[in-house]
Predict the structure.
Amino acid sequence: MEMSATMTRGMMRAVVISGCALSLAGCAGVPGGNEASKGPNRLATLEGYTAAYDATGALVVMRQAAPFGNDEGAAAKRAANAICGGAVASSIDDTYRDGAWVFPKGCA
């Protein structure tokens, strides 16, 4: 059976595209290190504060010296903005929990 030139070019494109997709897929789950400091959701360090993403993808910001109080949402948001490298995706769903402020939408 003979293949036409168009069919051969189409198959070659599929192989090239598949190879690119496979090489990118290998980058998705690189083990090791702090996952919150990698990729598009990289968090900056801010002295006196810690931050991480929880299992739901929410950004959790904590103060190291003394835990945040329920009335310190503005201070937590300022810290989150700095940690996010510009802006946290703040919303009405932001909550206080056990000395930390939780920003469900993460960094903007």
About this structure: The first strand starts at residue 49 and ends at 53.
